[in-house]
Amino acid sequence: QVQLVESGGGLVQPGGSLRLSCAASGIIYSIADMGWYRQAPGKQRELVATITRGGSTNYADSVKGRFTISRDNAKNTVDLQMNSLKPEDTAVYYCNCYAIGSRGGRNYWGQGTQVTVSS
């Protein structure tokens, strides 16, 4: 079983910055893609950014140029640096990864961390 634990959410003013971190633990043989998704009230969960094991990244158009995803393969962690935050970035942010553990490969989700952008 693989567990994902996020940290770093909170309240920030428009234009501010936050850094989200996510650590995977458990019996992990390998992690392929890692990423961040978000879900605002009344909306579907949407992709924010993903990163492959080799470091290739993909971003939602709405966050390009403002957010940066990074990972540490040795530590099984993925971070999301969020700059120039806007009120529309307010959501619960979820960490995701495809990991191969003792029970085979599957997608895993964290419990989510709240990000609120408001003055």
Keywords:
11 strands, mainly beta, single chain, 61% strand, 0% helix, 7-stranded mixed β-sheet
Model regions low in confidence, pLDDT < 50 over at least 5 residues: none
* Helix proportion range: under 10%
Estimate the strand proportion. Answer: over 45%
Which descriptor suits the 3D outline? globular
Helix and strand pattern? EEEEEEEEEEE
Number of strands: 11
**What oligomeric state best describes the polypeptide chains here?**
single chain
Radius of gyration: 14 Å
Number of helices: 0
Mean pLDDT metric: 96
In short:
The protein is 0% helix and 61% strand. It has strands spanning 2-7, 10-12, 18-26, 28-39, 46-51, 57-59, 67-72, 77-82, 91-101, 104-109, 113-117.
Give an account of the 3D structure.
The chain is mainly β and 119 residues long. 0% of the residues lie in helices and 61% in strands. The strands form two sheets. Strands 2, 4, 5, 6, 9, 10 and 11 form a seven-stranded mixed β-sheet that branches. A four-stranded antiparallel β-sheet has the order 1-3-8-7, with no helix packed on it. It starts with a strand and ends with a strand. The relative contact order is 0.33.
